[in-house]
Amino acid sequence: MISGTEPHVQSSVSGRTGWEQIVDLALAEDIGTGDVTTLAIIPSDTRATGAIIAKQSGVISGIGLAGFVFHRVDPSVVFTPMIQDGDSIEPGVTIATIAGAARGLLMAERVALNILQRLSGVATITRSYVDQIAGAHARIVDTRKTTPGMRGLEKAAVRHGGGFNHRFGLADGVLIKDNHLAALGPPGSDRVGRAVALARSHAPHTLRIEIEVTNFQELEEAVTAGADVIMLDNMDLPTMRRAVEFVAGRALLEASGGIVLSSVREVAATGVDLISAGALTHSAPSLDLSLEFSIGAG
Amino acid sequence: MISGTEPHVQSSVSGRTGWEQIVDLALAEDIGTGDVTTLAIIPSDTRATGAIIAKQSGVISGIGLAGFVFHRVDPSVVFTPMIQDGDSIEPGVTIATIAGAARGLLMAERVALNILQRLSGVATITRSYVDQIAGAHARIVDTRKTTPGMRGLEKAAVRHGGGFNHRFGLADGVLIKDNHLAALGPPGSDRVGRAVALARSHAPHTLRIEIEVTNFQELEEAVTAGADVIMLDNMDLPTMRRAVEFVAGRALLEASGGIVLSSVREVAATGVDLISAGALTHSAPSLDLSLEFSIGAG
Amino acid sequence: MISGTEPHVQSSVSGRTGWEQIVDLALAEDIGTGDVTTLAIIPSDTRATGAIIAKQSGVISGIGLAGFVFHRVDPSVVFTPMIQDGDSIEPGVTIATIAGAARGLLMAERVALNILQRLSGVATITRSYVDQIAGAHARIVDTRKTTPGMRGLEKAAVRHGGGFNHRFGLADGVLIKDNHLAALGPPGSDRVGRAVALARSHAPHTLRIEIEVTNFQELEEAVTAGADVIMLDNMDLPTMRRAVEFVAGRALLEASGGIVLSSVREVAATGVDLISAGALTHSAPSLDLSLEFSIGAG
Amino acid sequence: MISGTEPHVQSSVSGRTGWEQIVDLALAEDIGTGDVTTLAIIPSDTRATGAIIAKQSGVISGIGLAGFVFHRVDPSVVFTPMIQDGDSIEPGVTIATIAGAARGLLMAERVALNILQRLSGVATITRSYVDQIAGAHARIVDTRKTTPGMRGLEKAAVRHGGGFNHRFGLADGVLIKDNHLAALGPPGSDRVGRAVALARSHAPHTLRIEIEVTNFQELEEAVTAGADVIMLDNMDLPTMRRAVEFVAGRALLEASGGIVLSSVREVAATGVDLISAGALTHSAPSLDLSLEFSIGAG
Amino acid sequence: MISGTEPHVQSSVSGRTGWEQIVDLALAEDIGTGDVTTLAIIPSDTRATGAIIAKQSGVISGIGLAGFVFHRVDPSVVFTPMIQDGDSIEPGVTIATIAGAARGLLMAERVALNILQRLSGVATITRSYVDQIAGAHARIVDTRKTTPGMRGLEKAAVRHGGGFNHRFGLADGVLIKDNHLAALGPPGSDRVGRAVALARSHAPHTLRIEIEVTNFQELEEAVTAGADVIMLDNMDLPTMRRAVEFVAGRALLEASGGIVLSSVREVAATGVDLISAGALTHSAPSLDLSLEFSIGAG
Amino acid sequence: MISGTEPHVQSSVSGRTGWEQIVDLALAEDIGTGDVTTLAIIPSDTRATGAIIAKQSGVISGIGLAGFVFHRVDPSVVFTPMIQDGDSIEPGVTIATIAGAARGLLMAERVALNILQRLSGVATITRSYVDQIAGAHARIVDTRKTTPGMRGLEKAAVRHGGGFNHRFGLADGVLIKDNHLAALGPPGSDRVGRAVALARSHAPHTLRIEIEVTNFQELEEAVTAGADVIMLDNMDLPTMRRAVEFVAGRALLEASGGIVLSSVREVAATGVDLISAGALTHSAPSLDLSLEFSIGAG
Predict the structure, then answer these.
(1) For C84-136, what is each residue's pLDDT tens digit?
(2) Following DSSP, what letter does each residue of A60-103 receive, concatenated?
(3) For chain D, what percent of residues have pLDDT higher than 70?
(4) B14 falls in which pLDDT band (50, 70, 90)?
(5) What does the pLDDT read at residue B158?
(6) Assigned domain for C66 exists
(7) Which residues contact F249 (CB under 8 A, 6 or more apart)?
(8) Taking an 8 Å Cβ-Cβ cutoff, which residues of chain C contact chain B?
(9) Which of A250, B70, E164, E196: CA 20 to 30 A from E151?
């Protein structure tokens, strides 16, 4: 089992989980037909040790996956995590140690760091949002604005940062957006009510019905139609407050659109249940980590 | 052929190119077993049009790939790019129009935007580095600090931004780093010379030999050993200037390590041939784009 | 697009949808390294026509998929469906006609029929359940007791027969069963309430919480805990009636366990909202169909 | 090695055997992006034991494969079969015990049972045919009317039930059918003889030539042409008896078409060598089995 | 359909036929992440024509497959075969012409030629064996000593050269060898008879039973046991003649072991039915072909 | 790690290295749906030993890969190499011993030998070229004329024979050929200089620029343009000698075209740096090896 991912998750017809596939893809593009430098310079029996060291403070996600990368290249590598996913770290902290054949360590290093730095970047930015709303009722949730091929990993990183997950994708949640409504006619034609009814009658009964609204009129229609969750799209703070008061628990309310670190606290204060932010995944900078080797010491 | 990628590139044993694989992976994780909302709300014969609009200024990369995503979901979609990869755009500019069955457009939208925004983010940041050193001799080059599974696409985005590519991965370039040198003994044992000799005798004759040096002593050894390219790792500006003067064209010089947008102009002024920056790919924020639909108009 | 499956569904990282994969698997195991009989006996330029004829009454599902099988073996085959998925047919009815190279028709025949007969068997048995409860409030829903590799197709067949779908799998619905409860302690420890609370706090907010109960005590706990859906497991009719009365719309009620065609009408009469039956998919007999060829007529 | 499948069988270019592929496909469609219920309710360190119990009498097939499913989800599960493939069981008998992390057991349960119940259903119905003809000379053989993706497993189940296998698919047996004959001209044109000759001259010499005949005239032609095996298609009992007498060992005779459990004994009594029945695989009902858990006891 | 392969053959669970897979594998290893030379030198709109020219006399196999390679790299290439598989060619003959974008032609050239030259080498050597025994009763047949991944293509090449195929692999023919016999006991224990009986009772009735014998004693046992085909392993000519006389049509006889071009005529003269030669596939030299381009003329 | 291949090489997105893929492909085509003979004749508990014996002198390559084939079929086989890749062997020498279940040994035998014999054939012919030029300055290098799917293995075999590798494929070396030049205009237009300049400005700086010349005029242009390596295509010996003298170390010189074993010594004597020969890989005859079994002895 790989820390930083769900245990036992079997999401692929290839017999490999999602995280195994993205690791294999990354290794294939990096190593290609072989590491010409390492094979030329490093004898096959040279051993080495290494340590992954933080050069920045943040929250770690993907520690087990980094170990998986080393094992994928060389199953005999010994990878020892020193912290757990979700832990906060300061510069200088040792995140993991590695020991094994020098060739394998050198060939796996870049891919392991690329993945660990990216996921830790997501966990770190999520933690900063979560810390901003400490004490509030709302959940920070992610979106579908994730890195291609890394959705499951980035959603785990959001959890490691203290956030919660929205639906994984289009199959496990009903979310009616303005584009869906447009297909049912112009505003004023009770299209919100009809949309909710269509979703109720076609979608499996195991799913809640969420609908996006952009104004108070639509919000009222959504409540009347019995929507389970209502997304308040790009509303200003007074409107959000009014929405919370009006809905009064008859549906969950999700604030969405243009929410940044500096505004999230005020949004939470409106009383909404959920705050979603694409920036958690689409623009998180990599966390700065380095791998320091000692040849012969392993 | 997909703009934003190399034409005809066949990099996979699965019969799909690298960019087809990452698109398929992204669609699989987003659509899963089906878009429950769209299938419930949108009749199969509803048609729609859409436009991808810039909400920020920047440089576009991946326009053809965005079209590929829509075709992959529904081969009958008509995708019309309005600009080319590498073009600079301002907020409000239409980047492409799309017309087809509403269901397909809605199911492909998120993945198409996720990819296009990420690659355009890379092209945009690269362009800002390139503009900083306008008139200088040096090339801005990328690194191996790329998003897992997207290396080829991100390297194309760097070119669209006006940068150049370093080696693709470990197989198509010799780059001897300090970790390789450590395996050959302590400093002072002419390990630089021996490393270059080993690389010469084992690597295919089609590859240049590049070596990383961290001080002037190693630089001299590298020149003596006949290295083709020398990477100056984390050197200060005076040392870089001295290195350029000393080497005098006997090898290419690459500046590397901690180079940011505000310092790149001074680095270029030292006379180095290449400046590499991991930030082009590991931390580029997504470019803000949106897809606006009109139901029934397509 | 293949009738009998969801349009545009992209459920695989291999670039093929789920139904393409099972078709390919079936063709691979049937054709293997080549049809030695057909290649020996039938000249490559012989053409033929065929008709798929019902030998039994029932409901058809998978007509488009049957066409896909023929196209997969020979893209030039002309496959013309004469009816639509969900249509009822009587013995002697022509379901589709096929024309093309005789070799391709002969090589695709068995796999096309195997799939079409199996899915039509599922649609047919579902229709018989649905007809039994005509006029009642309840939905007939399927289970996860499906044929390995054919879940999406069989769930479509259930819809073609007039039934509804339960969750697709473990990822798109919360269903707390007795085995989950056992992990939380013995009965009487408010484990039902704790289980619902755990699910609420960990699962995405887009999912309803369903819980299985085996007695009235648990039912009361589930309602108190705010479960959205409650599965009444193997309850007798009086208990189900009492449950409907007690819950009074505060949650959906699903009857489950040992429900057969002869009992489904009485179960529906209790007023439950959903009736699930594994027999729709795990033991549906194939519908009897045949493919009749005319050589030279195509 | 997995009981219920051939040992060492390597039937796939993906590096996985056929049974590994169908298991992976089934797990992928069931588990998808993760078991939201189990991950929410069951702590990762909870352990459990389980027993697979028969609720019906029958013949077991696929016991090892069921174990493989559990191992695929969690390699640390201990799966202990209590009986062997081919064994007859009565209601209440324990077929296997399982011990391991509760999460893994819960995630693998449904797929393991789906496969084991289906294959045991095939073995059970086969055994009933075999028992019907006890003492007779004939073999009960299967057909190509198998579940897509499960042919190898279902053919093993037929053997576990005491039956024999016909050819695996189109590549390992020559079987000339009426559709093949039609391509050679009308009846009366010695097309049977020409078909057998074509097969002899084109097919590898390692294969016997089997031909389907529908009347006595064709039977005589087939014997004259030197067919190795002759399939008597939908013949009545007197004609079959006459065929056996006429052929007198010059070819093997296979009875085929509409043979059901109640008629198989009479068919065997005609003296034919082989009796094929599609019902063994295309309509076998699942054998009723259940998995009973005890949390904390493992 | 690709000439040089069986039409419609679907031998893979990946949705690609066997020949598509080996082509994709070959293109992946040759093109990798892109043709750096062509992309640097050749503008994307440059067009070219080419001709594949024979530089040696021989027999062509794989002409359609060569076309497939060009289409796989660039679907817009026009590939025009000038001859058919199985045709004999002399030096200077044009085998095919190609027109399209210069980039695509240059990137596909090497792989197309590698495959076409290798298969034509197999067809050419086979033809030389066939010509040697012109007029004789025997068939020249291939073995399982084929190039990994190319068995189906090489077996087609053998047919193009005028030879016949032995079994494809281990699944479609029973061939009992000395190693199998050894498992049944020492010579003199009627192990030949027991082996044939075991094969009869376990193998599908659609397969003939072939057995390898190394001396006359075993030959007699094999005939007595009712073997369908008997392989005479490494026997001298007088023994082979005696075997033919003794068996007198009761079984097919296959000569095998150390048969070379210079000896094949004498072997055929003994009256055996089949002569197998591994050299047809394991050591056939490539046929010399070249591809001549004209830039701008296409 | 498999001897005969690079350690740790991860060249595939499927999670299998290149050599694993070709082994799987070969096993899939040979074993297919199962070894009918072995399963019928050999009890599952029969054990055997075997030895791979040389029947010819030569150089071994692929010994570890042969072991991998046996392990892939049956992980419990014990495979003991008696020599190393690159070792010369004489007839009668034991190359490896194998012990395990008889079924697995019999099913893996043919594929293991097919691969080992082919690679050893390449190593053997390479050694003969290398021995011919003993004492000379030049390297024997391979070409891209390799067996589809086996390039990495055959390039390793060339090294085992004492040769060196040219570029792996189109991505890791710039090689400008006459076809590329033709796109830049007629001879006399300084197209050689322009081609080299284009390559310098577009290709990564990590690659050398090699160009093919066919006459002395082009050679002079190439030197002037600063080409790093110059391929002398089909030049006669005096011209090669003159080229060596003229270039005088300013570029590496590679002799290419029609070089055979009998001429290689004279070519080396001209002083060129590299001699490439397609015959090393495209027409190497298999080395004759056999596998001798003893049942019951393992």
Answers:
(1) 999 999 999 999 999 999 999 999 999 999 999 999 999 999 999 999 999 99
(2) ---HHHHHHHHHHH-TT-EEEESS-TT-EE-TT-EEEEEEEEHH
(3) 94
(4) low
(5) 98
(6) yes
(7) none
(8) 6-15, 18, 152, 168-169, 171-172
(9) E196
Give the separation between CA D265 and CA D272, rounded to whole angstroms: 11
User: What does the block give as tokens for D75?
Assistant: 């390699």
**Position E6 in a domain:** no
Q: Which amino acid is at D13?
A: V
> What tokens were used for D250?
């010059």
Catalytic residue among B16, B47, B144, B145: B145
Measured CA to CA, the distance from residue D139 to residue B253 in angstroms comes to 80
Taking CA atoms, what residue in E is nearest to D253? E205
Q: Give the model's pLDDT for residue A296.
A: 67
pLDDT of residue B294: 85
Instruction: State the average pLDDT over residues F72-98.
Output: 96
Please name the helix (run of DSSP H) or strand (run of DSSP E) that holds residue C291, with its range, or none. strand C289-295
What CATH number corresponds to the domain at position D144? Answer: 3.20.20.70
Mean pLDDT in chain C? 92
Beta carbons of D207 and C285 less than 8 Å apart? no
What's the rounded Cα separation, in Å, for the pair D139 and D256? 12
In chain A, residues with a C-beta closer than 8 Å to the C-beta of D107 are 8, 10
Contacts of E29 in chain A (CB under 8 A): 33
**CB-based contact F167 B204, cutoff 8 Å:** yes
**C176 in a domain, yes or no?**
yes
Cβ distance F11 to A28 less than 8 Å, yes or no, reads yes
- Give yes or no: E103 in active site: no
Subunits next to D (3 or more Cβ pairs <8 Å) are A, B, C, E, F
> pLDDT at position D12, please?
52
Return the exposure string of B37-52: e unless at least 16 CB atoms fall within 10 Å of the residue's CB, then b.
Answer: bbbbbbeeebbbbbbb
Model confidence band, residue F28 (pLDDT cutoffs 50, 70, 90): very high
Between B196 and B11, residue with greater pLDDT: B196
Same domain, F103 and F189: no
Taking the C-alpha atoms of residue A292 and residue A51, their distance in angstroms, rounded to an integer, is 5
Q: How many CA atoms lie within 13 A of B156 on its CB side?
A: 27
Residue ranges in chain D modelled with pLDDT below 50: 1-11, 298
Residues pairing with E47 in the sheet: E101
Residues A89, A62 contacting (CB under 8 angstroms): no
Positions of chain A with pLDDT under 50: 1-11, 298
E25 shares its domain with E152: no
pLDDT greater than 90 at residue C256: yes
pTM of the model: 0.94
Shared domain for A75 and A40, answered yes or no, is: yes
CA–CA separation, E164 and E146 (whole Å): 14
Structural domain of residue B117, as residue ranges?
18-129+285-295
Q: How far apart are CA F143 and CA F145, in angstroms?
A: 5
- The answer to whether position B4 is within a domain reads no
CB E250 within 8 A of CB E230: no
**How many distinct helices (H) and strands (E) make up chain D?**
11, 12
C166 vs A141: CB contact, 8 Å cut-off? no
Q: What is the CATH number of the domain that holds B60?
A: 3.90.1170.20
Chain F residues touching D14 at Cβ < 8 A: 14, 24
Cα atoms in the 13 Å half-sphere on the side-chain side of F256 = 24
How many residues comprise chain F?
298
Is F212 a catalytic site residue? yes
Q: Answer for the pair E135, E269: CB distance below 8 angstroms, yes or no.
A: no
Q: Which residues of A touch D31 (CB under 8 A)?
A: 8-11
pLDDT at position E188: 80
Nearest neighbour of B34 by CB, restricted to C6, C13, C15:
C6
Residue in chain F lying closest to B229 (CA): F206
Q: Tell me the Ramachandran region of residue E129: left when phi exceeds 0, alpha when psi lies from -120 to 50, beta otherwise.
A: alpha
Single-letter code of the amino acid located at F48: A
